[in-house]
Amino acid sequence: MKYTLFQGVQVETVTTNLQYLAEMWRSGKLISFHKWLQRLLQEKKWKSNKSKKARQYLTSLFGTKGVVQGFLICDISLLIDNLKEKRNDEPNLSSLWTEMIDWLEIKKEKGATHIVLDGQNRLAFAICPFLFDNLPTTLTITSVNDDGSVIVQEKNNVTFESLSDFGNIQSDILNHPIMLQAIVSGNVETIRNQIIAINEGEAMTQNEKRATNFTIVSFHINATVEYSLIVPFFQSLKKVFTGDKYDLEKKGDVRFLAEFLYYLRNGSVGTEKQLDQMYHAKDEKIEKQLKYLNELFIWVAKNLTKSIIEKINSKELFRHLLISITRMIDKTVPGYQDVDYHIKDFNQIKNPSLFLEKIVDKLNEMLQDDDNFVTRYGDDGKVLPRLTRDAKAHSFYAYHTGSSENDLRAREKLFTPTLNEVINECKSKGIIITHDARKIDQLTKMKVQKKHSKDVFERFPTKNLVSFEGMELDHIISVKKGGTADEDNLQYTAKKYNRQKGAS
């Protein structure tokens, strides 16, 4: 019997030069795919201390003759083919896999040929800024005098442009040898494991590993946090997204969304193991839950104004805000039945910013209540400033210092009466619309009929305006877009034209 190694990935290795690699990145032929395959670009780390890490890398790169470090890339067509195989294997999740495929195919149509798997930070924050954006670095330059003597000089803060005064140095830099390792065939999940193993010399967190999983959950959570509204939104909350678990440059926003998805499914934030398992979910609920997760965070990002964000001083307050909203709309989450009024969708909240601010204000009011804390006095008899350790056990504040299932249930229970007060106030003031815009009372129908009968313009073809034969009521602004059942938003339309118009 003959034995051979199983090698699930085929790699072709070529030596090229720095100019070729940089132009590939600059032109968009080489792209990153951090919606799935990668951790986020480590911008803060590479740009801190006047781009110290980037400058150190450049000094090392150009101070070495030959190739010492390569760049791992992957053929974009290979990824697309792998995703299509996944779609065929999991037809119940076909629409979700299609979104991933479409994203890559759009990039391919625009000229992308490869995905960079290892080296994106070096390209984005060191090589390209040096070649094209005047990032300075330190280089050691050798010159030879007419008498043959050699002079070695260390030049600080030199830019690529300034090197035009040093003979052929610019040409030497552009032609500096670079090794490209291109994955041309194999299983994408094996490729993903390669990324985790390589990882530019820095260990990935468990959360970052999950975020690179070859799954529907991974892609769609990553896609949500990269939505144009949500990226700056989380940046505005960076004061509360801190620490190793929630650092935004280590995909702390991804972790938070993953925890909230787990809450939708199980009523808690989940352990590391439980989150790992959830990322492989294929049940019939997952598509609906991912859709709601996306809609919730986009809606919140649109409507949380700067002044409200300034009032959010903890990650758990933010989590509680999201849970309060969800308890109004999702009958599967804990405490849904304890909320006085439920809504079908976000369109029923007519003044979202005011509604959100009312909840945040009430949460802060309860968190700042003196009853949460043991009062401490100094030697002079004066009350000392409150510290977290002064929080009384089982107080509203204490339950906001963690995110265990017990913390969540306890603080939700304590806040429920106040939440109901806010909801009922908003109902009475028209901030929350309580009637179904699809249900139109008879009086309103008669008013719209009268208006239509007197209409001098024949907007819609009809046989008989008086009998309203073949006609039906149409929302001018659709219910989907927040339209109401008020007389001013209704008109009679020939049935076929109403159906052609659609909900959007």
Instruction: Profile the largest sheet.
Output: 5 strands, mixed
**Fraction of residues in helices?**
40-55%
Oligomer: single chain
Low-confidence stretches: 456-467
Q: Measured on Cα atoms, how large is the radius of gyration?
A: 30 Å
Shape: globular
Briefly note the structural class of the backbone. Answer: alpha/beta
Task: Please provide the count of β strands.
Answer: 9
**Total of domains:** 3
Keywords:
504 residues; alpha/beta; 3 domains; 5-stranded mixed beta sheet; two-stranded antiparallel ribbon; 20 helices; 46% helix
Describe this structure in words.
With 504 residues, the chain is an alpha/beta fold. The protein folds into three domains: 9-204, no CATH class; 236-428, no CATH class; 442-501, no CATH class. 46% of the residues lie in helices and 12% in strands. It has 20 helices and nine strands. The protein has helices at 18-27, 43-62, 76-89, 94-109, 120-132, 169-174, 188-198, 206-211, 216-225, 230-236, 243-246, 252-266, 272-278, 286-303, 306-309, 315-327, 352-367, 405-428, 442-453, 495-501; strands spanning 9-17, 30-31, 70-75, 114-118, 137-144, 150-158, 177-186, 471-475, 490-494. The strands form three sheets. It has a five-stranded mixed sheet with strand order 1-7-3-4-2, with helices on both faces. Strands 5-6 form a two-stranded antiparallel sheet. Strands 8-9 form a two-stranded antiparallel sheet. Strand 5 (137-144) and strand 6 (150-158) form a beta hairpin. Helix 2 crosses helix 5 (120-132) and helix 3 (76-89) runs antiparallel to helix 4 (94-109). The longest helix is centred in the C-terminal third of the chain and has 24 residues, at 405-428. The radius of gyration is 30 Å and the shape is globular. The termini are far apart. Mean pLDDT is 85; it is low at 456-467.
